[in-house]
Amino acid sequence: MGRFFGLFFDFDDQQKAVISKLNENPIKSRRVIGRGTLTSDASEIRSTEKFQAYMDRASKFVSRN
Protein backbone atom coordinates (compact mmCIF):
# COMPACT_ATOMS: atom_id res chain seq x y z
CA MET A 1 0.00 0.00 0.00
CA GLY A 2 1.48 3.29 -0.97
CA ARG A 3 2.49 5.92 1.50
CA PHE A 4 0.26 8.43 -0.25
CA PHE A 5 -2.99 6.72 0.75
CA GLY A 6 -1.67 6.08 4.23
CA LEU A 7 -1.57 9.82 4.76
CA PHE A 8 -5.30 10.17 4.18
CA PHE A 9 -6.84 6.85 5.20
CA ASP A 10 -6.55 4.58 8.20
CA PHE A 11 -7.12 1.07 6.82
CA ASP A 12 -8.25 -1.74 9.10
CA ASP A 13 -6.92 -5.30 8.76
CA GLN A 14 -9.75 -6.46 6.50
CA GLN A 15 -9.25 -3.55 4.12
CA LYS A 16 -5.50 -4.17 4.07
CA ALA A 17 -6.14 -7.81 3.17
CA VAL A 18 -8.40 -6.80 0.28
CA ILE A 19 -5.83 -4.31 -0.99
CA SER A 20 -3.12 -6.97 -0.84
CA LYS A 21 -5.27 -9.41 -2.82
CA LEU A 22 -5.97 -6.77 -5.46
CA ASN A 23 -2.27 -5.96 -5.75
CA GLU A 24 -1.37 -9.66 -6.16
CA ASN A 25 -4.02 -10.18 -8.85
CA PRO A 26 -2.65 -10.54 -12.40
CA ILE A 27 -5.49 -8.45 -13.85
CA LYS A 28 -4.10 -4.95 -14.35
CA SER A 29 -6.97 -3.37 -16.29
CA ARG A 30 -9.09 -2.93 -13.16
CA ARG A 31 -10.73 0.44 -12.73
CA VAL A 32 -12.99 1.78 -10.00
CA ILE A 33 -16.01 3.66 -11.25
CA GLY A 34 -18.73 5.37 -9.32
CA ARG A 35 -18.89 4.37 -5.69
CA GLY A 36 -16.69 1.33 -5.78
CA THR A 37 -17.73 -0.69 -8.82
CA LEU A 38 -14.75 -2.57 -10.23
CA THR A 39 -14.47 -3.05 -13.97
CA SER A 40 -11.84 -4.88 -15.99
CA ASP A 41 -11.11 -5.92 -19.54
CA ALA A 42 -12.84 -9.22 -20.35
CA SER A 43 -10.17 -10.27 -22.85
CA GLU A 44 -7.51 -9.90 -20.16
CA ILE A 45 -9.54 -12.09 -17.81
CA ARG A 46 -10.10 -14.72 -20.51
CA SER A 47 -6.36 -14.96 -21.11
CA THR A 48 -5.47 -15.86 -17.50
CA GLU A 49 -4.45 -19.41 -16.63
CA LYS A 50 -7.10 -19.62 -13.94
CA PHE A 51 -9.89 -18.72 -16.36
CA GLN A 52 -8.57 -21.18 -18.95
CA ALA A 53 -8.58 -23.96 -16.35
CA TYR A 54 -12.16 -23.15 -15.34
CA MET A 55 -13.20 -23.04 -18.99
CA ASP A 56 -11.69 -26.49 -19.63
CA ARG A 57 -13.40 -27.84 -16.54
CA ALA A 58 -16.75 -26.37 -17.59
CA SER A 59 -16.49 -27.73 -21.14
CA LYS A 60 -15.76 -31.23 -19.79
CA PHE A 61 -18.75 -30.97 -17.49
CA VAL A 62 -21.06 -29.81 -20.29
CA SER A 63 -19.85 -32.47 -22.72
CA ARG A 64 -20.65 -35.20 -20.16
CA ASN A 65 -24.31 -34.21 -19.97
Describe it.
This protein has 65 residues and is mainly α. It has one domain (3-64). Helices cover 60% and strands 9% of the residues. It has helices spanning 3-8, 13-24, 42-46, 49-64; strands at 31-33, 37-39. Strands 1-2 form a two-stranded antiparallel ribbon. Strand 1 (31-33) and strand 2 (37-39) form a beta hairpin. The mean pLDDT is 86.
Structural class: mainly alpha
Query: Number of DSSP strands?
Result: 2
* Share of residues in helices: 55-70%
Number of helices: 4
Q: What's the structural domain tally?
A: 1
What separation lies between the terminal Cα atoms? 46 Å
Rg of Cα set: 17 Å
Main sheet makeup: 2 strands, antiparallel
**Which range does the strand content fall in?**
5-15%
Poorly predicted regions = none
Strand order of the main beta sheet, please? 1-2
Element-level helix/strand string: HHEEHH
